[in-house]
């Protein structure tokens, strides 16, 4: 059963979508976390018939997101579903290794995956399809020489997340 809720955040209203899972903390595995006006993001109108609003299903996810935005949480412990191509999954797994407050370039991500640095464009495309903003930290990937580029949720939101993690204020 697909469940969803919204959560006010410094990024705007987040839409959390999940699937009920008996093994997940709180009983829900996150399938999507998107922000308003996100390129390629899920919006409430995209939800399948039968999806139901259920804020209680996301109690643990909500708690962790609030702690993250307050600057009190640096590592999420949230079960989420694995979807996407094998290449996307490999890229996303690499994103999960980028520590709080650090950044890598797209070429660095390619290198960490053991593929040529020249594959950075393909890496960027896969990162752009990440359905789990914030909790799968695609915002920690920057352009060459640290340029703040490319973020499905918008560059200003990416900058806000990077500033939060760098200790330049809470979100």
From TrEMBL:
EC class (word): transferase
Transmembrane segments: none
GO molecular function: methylated-DNA-[protein]-cysteine S-methyltransferase activity
EC annotation from Swiss-Prot or TrEMBL: 2.1.1.63
Catalytic function, reaction form: a 6-O-methyl-2'-deoxyguanosine in DNA + L-cysteinyl-[protein] = S-methyl-L-cysteinyl-[protein] + a 2'-deoxyguanosine in DNA; a 4-O-methyl-thymidine in DNA + L-cysteinyl-[protein] = a thymidine in DNA + S-methyl-L-cysteinyl-[protein]
Function per UniProt: Involved in the cellular defense against the biological effects of O6-methylguanine (O6-MeG) and O4-methylthymine (O4-MeT) in DNA. Repairs the methylated nucleobase in DNA by stoichiometrically transferring the methyl group to a cysteine residue in the enzyme. This is a suicide reaction: the enzyme is irreversibly inactivated.
Protein name: Methylated-DNA--protein-cysteine methyltransferase
Source organism of this protein record: Actinacidiphila glaucinigra
